[in-house]
């Protein structure tokens, strides 16, 4: 018998012809501003073989875009952004059409499925089916799938090895990563959790809403003295998203055998005088040696089973109230460039999400 022709893309509803996306319009000198981006109209893409068309509902506004705009870092998981390129990042959306083979039984997401992927900053995205993670309906609000808990959980369990009674210091403790890490450290049995931030207002919210025992504030006095008061017994684990002076102060306050998980470099990414691709800091090597300290960098791992286990834990913890997902919602694509500028300037608390 002759073989059947490949199926055409299967839509769930009549699709518009026009989509919108945010593009890099010009390279900045210093921190990018909203004017360096533009919202443009483009054709709704047609999903190719083994692709699905996703109508995005939410996408994450994250500061690491500064590094990609600055030219990127060799070995990083994402390519640099050039003028005219659409931005990208984590997104949650609904599959509205599938290409040939993508919707076959066992072949990938189906029309109507909610999925997580990395082609945010646009209304519609044609995404390889293999690059989509189906979400199901276990969470009452799908926006929570943009929480950075998996990265924090991995760093605190596999690198920081948090143990019962440990004192944990989270730099950038009010950011998208830090706001989850502080809560997760407590879940793992930490006896004391200290955060770092650059804002007195955020410091108040961190203790009131996220359960930090104490917070040190950049610019409110020497960090070494603040840490000595906040953690008089020293630090066992450091979850570092910042680098710079916070990392240096944490090294001075570390106990023998302390474990440092380096997951970010905001001190360089958000420095106006730098291009976002480096984060220099001077450390005392003697302290590393005599205290037997471990410093290890880590990125978000591609471990489907580990992430699945975390997702189950996250769902239970959200429902029980052990963890919250602090976030700010910004309405509409037109507001996305301004939201990104505000993230670069540290004006928000928790994760910033654009809702379409």
TrEMBL record:
It comes from the Bacteria. CDD domains: PGDH. One of its GO terms (molecular function) is oxidoreductase activity. InterPro entries: ADH-like_C, ADH_N_2, ER, GroES-like_sf, NAD(P)-bd_dom_sf, Zn-ADH-like_protein. Residues 30-354 form the Enoyl reductase (ER) domain. This is NADP-dependent oxidoreductase.
């Amino acid at each position: 018998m002759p073989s059947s022709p490949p199926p055409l893309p299967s839509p769930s509803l009549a699709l518009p012809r026009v989509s919108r996306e945010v593009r890099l319009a010009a390279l900045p000198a210093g921190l990018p501003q909203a004017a360096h981006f533009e919202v443009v109209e483009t054709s709704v893409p047609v999903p190719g073989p083994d692709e699905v068309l996703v109508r995005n509902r939410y996408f994450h506004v994250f500061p690491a875009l500064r590094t990609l705009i600055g030219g990127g870092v060799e070995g990083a998981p994402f390519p640099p952004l050039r003028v005219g390129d659409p931005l990208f990042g984590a997104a949650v959306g609904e599959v509205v059409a599938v290409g040939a083979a993508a919707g076959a039984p066992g072949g990938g997401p189906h029309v109507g499925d909610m999925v997580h992927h990395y082609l945010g900053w646009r209304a519609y995205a044609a995404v390889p089916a293999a690059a989509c993670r189906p979400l199901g309906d276990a969470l009452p609000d799908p926006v929570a799938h943009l929480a950075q808990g998996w990265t924090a959980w991995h760093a605190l369990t596999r690198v920081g090895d948090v143990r019962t009674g440990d004192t944990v210091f989270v730099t950038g403790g009010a950011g998208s990563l830090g706001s989850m890490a502080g809560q997760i450290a407590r879940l793992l049995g930490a006896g004391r959790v200290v955060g770092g931030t650059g804002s007195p207002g955020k410091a108040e919210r961190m203790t009131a809403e996220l359960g930090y025992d104490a917070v040190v504030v950049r610019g409110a006095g020497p960090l070494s003295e603040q840490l000595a008061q906040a953690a008089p017994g020293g630090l066992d684990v450091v979850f570092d998203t910042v680098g710079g002076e916070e990392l240096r102060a944490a090294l001075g306050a570390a106990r023998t055998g302390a474990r440092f998980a380096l997951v970010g470099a905001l001190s360089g990414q958000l420095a106006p005088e730098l291009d976002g691709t480096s984060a220099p800091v001077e450390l005392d090597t003697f302290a590393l040696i005599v205290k037997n300290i471990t410093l290890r960098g880590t990125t978000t791992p591609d471990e489907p089973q580990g992430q699945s286990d975390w997702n189950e834990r996250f769902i239970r913890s959200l429902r029980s109230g052990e963890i919250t997902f602090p976030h700010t919602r910004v309405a509409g694509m037109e507001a996305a460039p301004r939201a990104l500028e505000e993230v670069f300037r540290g004006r928000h608390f928790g994760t910033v999400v654009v809702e379409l």
